[in-house]
Specification:
mainly alpha
Length: 45
């Protein structure tokens, strides 16, 4: 049971780190995506 718990801990820790890095990178891209959607919204309004 201890080995399974340890493995699960590292899987969760790795997933949190990956999500954190993805979020940091996504914040830079989000502004560009928002600008694109705003542009299309302005075209259709």
């Amino acid at each position: 049971m201890s080995e399974n718990t340890n493995t699960l801990f590292w899987i969760i820790t790795g997933a949190v780190i990956v999500v954190a890095i993805f979020t940091l990178l996504q914040n830079n891209i989000t502004d560009s995506i928002s600008g694109i959607f705003d542009h299309f919204n302005n075209l259709f309004n």
